[in-house]
Design brief:
The structure is a single chain. This protein is of the alpha+beta class. The protein folds into two domains: about 425 residues, MFS general substrate transporter like domains (Growth Hormone, Chain: A), CATH 1.20.1250; about 60 residues. It is about 70% helix and about 5% strand. It has 21 helices and four strands. It has a four-stranded antiparallel sheet with strand order 1-2-3-4, with no helix packed on it. Strand 1 and strand 2 form a beta hairpin.
Length: about 500
């Protein structure tokens, strides 16, 4: 008996490892686009209006999320018809190929409007692939795991989304240091993280080819009970469709906005609203993720004992109550207005560069560096185009602000972001087990994938774009964008508290 238990435990860890490696790489592929959004904005969109270019990039980033539900339908159906293994093997190839090709697309300066169009198409393919990947991996692991330990075992799959972001930041920062900041931002260094994905995908394909089909699906197939029309059975059946809607509006909608607010919008906010230096900002996110990631497993395991609902609802509640004070504390920690300047340490440099052209005389660059009593530094770089022809209209000045925090401010931000990632682990750690147990085996892949990817892909994926867009509206401030995730999480919290239960569907259904 003990030998059988050891064999089963060994097998489940092999399943988790093989599934997690592929899912981690898919998340890495998906998130390097968001992690490089400010650079991509300058490469693939007109640079005359940096804010519009950034919003266009965030919209393209969000487009990948919007199509994820369609990927869930297409690949979820395949997964319930032909099996879990081969379906998410296909999604892995599709994701890796799309990511690699993004690294090959010529810039806007080279091919004009074709550049953003091609990148958008590849981004949509990424979204379709991810729409099929997650449901397959989560279902595959859950169907190998003992029913009383599903929260614990599936929580390891849940860590891959955050670890994918972690890996993307590690790769980006490493390549940035190796090739140099100038080559990374102005040259082709930013392409290397995309091109590297083809190697990672190749390794994952080899690992996944050795995997076996899920035992529960294999049993259904042997008994001839595989669904003939997963879409109809998932969404045409009134009882099951009610579960799909409950999963979406009572759980994954709120879980999605908490996930993307605590990680992606926090990163965007620190970079664009607080103007923290690029490497320092991303290191803050890295350390925060590293500190909080073990809690995915802790809360997943805890959900096996006390139920999934209570932990997820608590995470949403904390997000609703704490986002504004947490983000405001981040902003105030970085704000130059809250610091005492050492006037004698202010340094101003002016540099003129001749630019070829019939109307351009020179490009004047003004660097102002301010040092503060607390040891932090604030650099403002202003580039002004001077024209030789009288009456010609010069482009608006390009202004770049960069705050380098002292040690105290740096660690303050790490702890603040870490708290928000802790909320993420509460809503995300148990959610895979919750979704798997909500639906029958024969339509599980399809049924769980759709609410998950609408909640995360649309409601969650739109957080950086919608929140940033809100802050551009006249009369708003740096915290106004938070009303979107707070409102969505609050609505999901109310619905989930009232209607979600910890009841599990019977496996034989």
């Amino acid at each position: 008996m003990k030998q059988n238990e050891l064999t089963l435990q060994s097998n489940i860890w092999k399943v988790i490892s093989a599934s997690s490696v592929g899912t981690l790489i898919e998340w890495y592929d998906f998130y390097i686009f968001g992690s490089l959004s400010t650079i991509i904005a300058s490469k693939f969109f007109p640079s005359a209006n940096p804010t519009a270019a950034l919003l266009s990039t965030l919209a393209t980033f969000a487009a990948g999320f919007i199509v994820r539900p369609f990927g869930a339908l297409v690949f979820g159906r395949l997964g319930d018809l032909i099996g879990r293994k081969y379906t998410f093997l296909l999604t892995l190839v599709l994701m890796g190929g799309s990511t690699f090709l993004i690294g090959c697309v010529p810039s806007y300066a080279t091919i004009g409007a074709w550049a953003p169009f091609i990148v958008l198409m590849l981004r949509l393919l990424q979204g379709l692939a991810l729409g099929g990947e997650y449901g397959g991996a989560a279902t595959y692991v859950a169907e190998h795991a003992p029913q009383n330990r599903r929260g614990f075992y599936t929580s390891w799959i849940q860590t891959t989304a955050t670890l994918g972001l972690f890996l993307s930041l590690i790769v980006i920062l490493t390549i940035r240091r190796v090739v140099g900041v100038e080559e990374f931002t102005k040259g082709d260094g930013w392409r290397y993280p995309f091109l590297l994905s083809i190697v990672l995908v190749g390794v994952s394909i080899v690992i996944r080819m050795k995997m076996h089909e899920s035992p529960l699906f294999s049993k259904l197939k042997a008994e001839g009970k595989v669904s003939k029309n997963p879409l109809k059975e998932s969404f045409g059946n009134k009882t099951n469709f009610k579960m799909v809607l409950l999963a979406l509006f009572g759980v994954t909608m709120g879980q999605g906005v908490v996930w993307y607010t605590g990680q992606f919008y926090a990163q965007s906010f620190i970079l664009t609203k607080c103007n923290v230096e690029y490497e320092q900002a991303n290191t803050i996110i890295l350390i925060s993720l590293m500190m909080a990631t073990p809690f995915f497993v802790i809360f997943g395991s805890l959900s096996d004992k006390i139920g999934r609902k209570y932990i997820m609802m608590t995470g949403m509640l904390l997000g609703v109550l704490c986002y504004r004070p947490l983000f405001d504390k981040i902003y105030q920690t970085c704000a130059p207005a809250n610091k005492t300047e050492l006037v004698e340490q202010r340094i101003t440099n002016e540099k003129h560069t001749l630019v070829t052209g019939s109307t351009t005389d020179s490009l004047a660059t003004y660097d102002t560096l301010k040092t503060y009593v607390d040891g932090s530094r604030f650099k403002v770089t202003k580039k002004v185009t001077k024209l030789a022809v009288a009456g010609a209209v010069a482009p608006p000045a390009e202004v770049k602000k960069e705050m380098t925090l002292n040690s105290s401010g740096y660690w303050t931000l790490i702890w603040l972001v870490g708290i928000m990632v802790l909320f993420v682990t509460m809503v995300y750690g148990p959610v895979a087990a919750f979704l798997v147990e909500l639906f029958p085996t024969k339509i599980r892949y399809t049924s769980m994938s759709l609410p998950y990817h609408i909640g995360n892909g649309i409601f969650g994926g739109l957080v950086p774009f919608v929140a940033t867009l809100i802050t551009t509206i006249k009369g708003t401030d740096h915290l106004s964008g938070l009303w979107y995730p707070i409102g969505v999480a609050a609505l999901s919290l109310v619905i989930g508290t009232l209607y979600v239960t910890n009841k599990k569907v019977k496996e034989e259904n």
